[in-house]
Write a structure and sequence with these properties.
Order of helices and strands of chain A: HEEEEHEHEEEEHEHEE
Number of helices of chain A: 5
CATH topology of chain A: Rossmann fold
Strand content of chain A: 35-45%
Oligomer: homodimer
Distance between the termini of chain A: 11 Å
CATH architecture of chain A: 3-Layer(aba) Sandwich
CATH class of chain A: Alpha Beta
Strand order of the largest sheet of chain A: 7-8-6-5-9-10-11-12
Radius of gyration of chain A: 16 Å
Largest interface: A-B, 29 and 29 residues
Number of domains of chain A: 1
Chain lengths: ~190, ~190
């Protein structure tokens, strides 16, 4: 998606420590006209895949997942992050390691919202090391549902999470893949 | 909005302790066709108000705020919840008391995303005691921006937060106002 690459070039900021700041259009502040186009783009990629549900994780994935789900005309579900793993019989739960905060957290979703007959598209704003997505994939497997694929707005290709998922046969589509970035600029994957 | 009342009657569940469960269409799982209609309804109510930005709070308000902002064709901003108040010069911050968890939390938004020239519509899924909304109003005042009004998907009228805001001259529009609810059913405000 050239659109996303252009937007990142125009409005994204590379900070030290491998952080790409897109808070002014994709996260915290959201350019809703752009959001609608992202939703259409993701829906276009997965329209033939029989998706019955879009799954994401709070909080920054919600707007993008909602936009994609609106275009696909399916429900959107978001997993919640919990500090503690208070598993009861009514939820699916998985553990995710956060390198940013060097801590584990738990993601949970009610069993009512992931069903064995679901074909689930995972949507998130960033795909970096892929740990959060692997947690979501674990929830899908616990539910006995099927994974249709992954759609990320921005993939940090140099962190390898997306390519590792692809190597396992999972369809991963990112609207922009960054192979390198530093103070000199951003190099997108062709 | 009859639509919201019907949806609550059909799919909402009243739990003990004054909790209305709408997780299967408005929160955690979101009915995106319904979400689009909510967005249109909110936009219709505020279209003449010169709104430049929609503001909400993570996480459950994001989808509704995004849907409304898409219809109004303005950016959407969400305040983040923090456990600690690590105020620096780059953010506006306010403190909110949560009765549910009997604790204070802090809401923050980058100064870049709330500007003195903004006319802000607050959107949230629930309006109960109104404390979270008052925190958001505080952020708007700190930014020197103007409050256009409040739109809530569901107002728990019996908790009084919405009426208190109205008494202060703030425009508050809720798509359904619940005046009473218990195991016998839900009574909507006419």
């Amino acid at each position: 998606m050239r659109l996303m690459e252009e937007k990142i070039r125009q409005e994204g900021k590379v900070l030290s420590g491998g952080i790409l700041k897109v808070g002014n259009f994709l996260n915290q502040q959201i350019d809703t006209r752009f959001l609608r186009r992202i939703g259409q783009e993701i829906a276009g990629l997965y329209r033939q895949e029989g998706v019955t549900k879009v799954l994401t994780i709070e909080a920054s994935g919600i707007a993008i997942a909602a936009a994609a789900a609106m275009e696909l005309d399916v429900p959107m579900v978001f997993a919640k992050k919990h500090k503690t793993s208070n598993v009861d019989g009514e939820i699916y739960s998985s553990t995710v390691h956060s390198f940013t905060h060097n801590t584990d957290y738990h993601i949970v979703v009610s069993r009512d919202y992931l069903l064995p007959e679901d074909r689930v598209l995972l949507v998130d704003d960033f795909l970096a090391n892929g740990h959060a997505l692997r947690g979501l994939i674990d929830l899908i497997r616990q539910a006995g549902a099927e994974l249709a694929g992954v759609a990320a707005a921005i993939e940090k290709g140099f962190q390898g999470g997306g390519d590792a998922l692809r190597a396992e046969g999972i369809r991963v589509e990112s609207l922009a893949v960054i192979d390198r970035m530093d103070e000199n600029g951003i190099v997108f994957r062709p």
